[in-house]
């Protein structure tokens, strides 16, 4: 296995880690409030709030809506910024959000190629050329959908 292959594997795994954290944060938000309530809060400038754990008692984290998404700070220290896709999900990412996720969460192991925004951008170009990530609109990326096993 070459060094590039090792880096690409680490980069894709880190992107998957970001996407899983994004899904978890969005699920906590939707657990704390109904989906309709979340979109009402966002529309009516109720931009900040607290999310609760599933037991309803402990605070799971805080959120702050922005433009196309939401920034989360979870109870266990994880910080993540998410933009929502056209369906209101969290399966998209961009260079800036991956860079922020790596730089704001020092407790996570991340590829050395994600040390700066420009390094992330160059990595994304390389990953895209190898069809390991694909464009979602003009500003975002997503992981290609794997064919399901029959």
Structural class, please? alpha+beta
Number of helices: 4
Shape: globular
If you compute it from the alpha carbons, what radius of gyration comes out, rounded to the nearest whole angstrom?
A: 16 Å
Oligomer: single chain
Please provide a brief summary of the model.
With 150 residues, the protein is of the alpha+beta class. The protein is built from four helices and six strands.
Features:
globular; two-stranded antiparallel ribbon; single chain; 4-stranded antiparallel beta sheet; 150 residues
Write the layout of secondary structure elements.
Layout: H1 3-32, H2 35-43, E1 48-52, E2 59-66, E3 69-74, E4 79-83, H3 95-104, H4 117-129, E5 134-136, E6 140-142
Antiparallel strand pairs: 1-2, 2-3, 3-4, 5-6
Helix pairs in contact: 3-4
Q: Could you please describe the fold and organization of this structure?
A:
The strands form two sheets. The chain has a four-stranded antiparallel sheet. Strand 3 and strand 4 form a beta hairpin. With 150 residues, the protein is of the alpha+beta class. The protein has one domain.
